[in-house]
Design goal:
162 residues, Jelly Rolls, mainly beta, globular, six-stranded antiparallel β-sheet, 44% strand, 1 helix, single chain
Length: 162
């Protein structure tokens, strides 16, 4: 990091396509690697009208903060819809009853910063699909993920006893 200045202009952030199908589609600009951040995640998110970046989910470890830079949309939080617009700041703590999702319900681009405390390992729950996701993203190590439906859980001693 010593060779990189600790500043970048928002227009210089490289964006990559992210998503699946017609519903989930975003352009993401990951600032962490560019600025050398290890304990704080920061991603520029751009959503076209009608799109979502991620499924409705909650975290058991990480805190997240969203800063709406441009546009408007909707925050689905604990199954309640909230209108959001440029200038709004949204905090989602870890734990039950904090599932969240940002949706572009407008006719224009929605742009926001997503910041995360980068807890690793992290456990997430996806209420709409009944899945859990376990994630590890330690600096310098390959990212790992395990995702399973809650009804496909194995017992602790399965396969251990001969």
């Amino acid at each position: 990091m010593a060779n990189n200045p600790p500043i970048i202009h928002i227009d210089a952030i490289e964006r990559t396509a992210f998503g699946q199908g017609d519903e989930f589609a975003a352009r993401l600009g990951r600032l962490g690697p560019v600025l050398g951040m290890e304990k704080l995640g920061c991603t520029l998110v751009e959503l076209e009208p009608g799109k979502k970046a991620w499924p409705y989910h909650l975290h058991y470890g990480a805190e997240e903060l969203f800063i709406i830079l441009a546009g408007s949309g909707s925050l689905r939080y604990d199954d309640t819809q909230h209108a959001i617009k440029a200038g709004d700041i949204i905090f989602t703590p870890p734990g039950e009853n904090t599932a969240h999702q940002i949706i572009n319900t407008s006719n224009a681009l929605l742009r926001y910063l997503a910041l995360s405390s980068m807890e690793s390992p992290e456990l997430c729950y996806y209420p709409d699909s009944g899945k859990y996701g376990a994630y590890s993203f330690m600096p310098g190590a390959p990212r790992k993920a395990f995702i399973a439906h809650e009804d496909s859980a194995a017992q602790y001693w399965d396969g251990e006893l001969l």
